[in-house]
UniProtKB/TrEMBL annotation:
<dbReference type="GO" id="GO:0070677">
    <property type="term" value="F:rRNA (cytosine-2'-O-)-methyltransferase activity"/>
</dbReference>
<comment type="similarity">
    <text>Belongs to the methyltransferase superfamily. RsmI family.</text>
</comment>
<keyword id="KW-0949">S-adenosyl-L-methionine</keyword>
<dbReference type="InterPro" id="IPR018063">
    <property type="entry name" value="SAM_MeTrfase_RsmI_CS"/>
</dbReference>
<comment type="function">
    <text>Catalyzes the 2'-O-methylation of the ribose of cytidine 1402 (C1402) in 16S rRNA.</text>
</comment>
<keyword id="KW-0489">Methyltransferase</keyword>
<keyword id="KW-0698">rRNA processing</keyword>
<keyword id="KW-0963">Cytoplasm</keyword>
<dbReference type="InterPro" id="IPR014776">
    <property type="entry name" value="4pyrrole_Mease_sub2"/>
</dbReference>
<dbReference type="Pfam" id="PF00590">
    <property type="entry name" value="TP_methylase"/>
</dbReference>
<feature type="domain" description="Tetrapyrrole methylase">
    <location>
        <begin position="14"/>
        <end position="212"/>
    </location>
</feature>
<dbReference type="InterPro" id="IPR035996">
    <property type="entry name" value="4pyrrol_Methylase_sf"/>
</dbReference>
<protein>
    <recommendedName>
        <fullName>Ribosomal RNA small subunit methyltransferase I</fullName>
        <ecNumber>2.1.1.198</ecNumber>
    </recommendedName>
</protein>
<keyword id="KW-0808">Transferase</keyword>
<dbReference type="InterPro" id="IPR000878">
    <property type="entry name" value="4pyrrol_Mease"/>
</dbReference>
<dbReference type="InterPro" id="IPR008189">
    <property type="entry name" value="rRNA_ssu_MeTfrase_I"/>
</dbReference>
<dbReference type="InterPro" id="IPR014777">
    <property type="entry name" value="4pyrrole_Mease_sub1"/>
</dbReference>
């Protein structure tokens, strides 16, 4: 077990700093303070991060850290931390590590007892979820589906029975094909497509999959898909349940044992099945 008290004493730390997903004014005061404080900033694209820092007149060394260079960048960042430097991690937009690289770096820091401190800030998935009009009580953030239709359908099939709201990210050039697969696997559920969040052309499109599919070829910008969960409960064949209990009893099980066995097998509540069997 490892316990980290982030504010108990000053020590070299890795800071996970969210950055605006569009509107630069949404950069938090604490986020700016951390970017001013650290010795260097690890970023997905030095050009994009450079523009952000320029807007706030922050001048710090930048370390390229993205999914294609982690073998080189992670040891470099760990060494900087061990030398007593503070390092911030940012992505091009939004929350670091969510559909962005960084988990290996955090794992290495945790393994080597280097503090990892996360800040609050922008996140496109949550922006879209809370304004979608769909249930927010429970949800799954899935991120990007595979870009190949065959693999994407397999991913969707594994999620088809999930009862809660599901959040996907998607690029504009794949949105039509993605929604076509969602319609085929999930059927015509309620959904919300949120695009260009916090930017001038921000838009929330609420409807069902077919409706949004009919216009998606005209849409541009980064997109978040918020999809209704599966609200259909599978109907259990009660006669089949009774037959299975009788089969188990004939095979040598006691009645109570057979009911418990079938309740697990058919995903039914034991008490309901008990009552059903004794009222037949």
């Amino acid at each position: 077990m490892k316990r980290q008290k982030s504010f108990e004493k000053e020590q070299p730390s890795l800071y996970l700093v969210p950055t605006p997903i569009g509107n630069l004014s949404e950069m938090t005061k604490r986020g700016l303070e951390i970017l001013e404080k650290v010795d260097c900033i690890a970023c997905e694209d030095t050009r994009n991060t450079g523009k952000l820092l320029q807007a706030y007149n922050i001048h710090k060394p930048l370390v390229s850290h993205h999914e294609h260079n982690t073998k080189e960048s992670v040891p470099k960042i760990i060494n900087a931390l061990k030398e007593g430097k503070n390092v911030a991690v940012v992505s091009d937009a939004g929350y670091p590590l969510l559909s962005d690289p960084g988990s290996w770096l955090v794992k290495e820091c945790v393994d080597q007892d280097i503090p990892v401190i996360s800040l609050s800030g922008c996140n496109a998935a949550l922006n879209a979820l809370v304004a979608s009009g769909l249930s927010t009580e429970h949800y799954l953030f899935y991120g990007f589906l595979d870009h190949k239709s065959s693999k994407r359908k397999k991913e969707l099939e594994s999620l088809a029975s999930f009862p809660y709201t599901i959040i996907f990210y998607e690029a504009p050039h794949r949105i039509e094909a993605c929604l076509q697969d969602i319609l085929e696997v999930f059927s015509n559920r309620k959904m919300c497509l949120a695009r260009e969040l916090t930017k001038l052309h921000e838009e929330y499109i609420r409807g069902n999959v077919e409706e949004i599919l009919s216009i998606c070829s005209t849409l541009k910008g980064e997109m978040v898909l918020v999809i209704e969960g599966n609200s259909k409960k599978e109907e259990v064949d009660l006669n089949l349940a009774i037959s299975r209990i009788e089969e188990c009893i004939e095979s040598g099980m006691k009645t109570k044992e057979a009911i418990v066995f079938v309740s697990k097998e058919m995903n039914m509540k034991k008490n309901e099945l008990y009552d059903l069997y004794h009222k037949k």
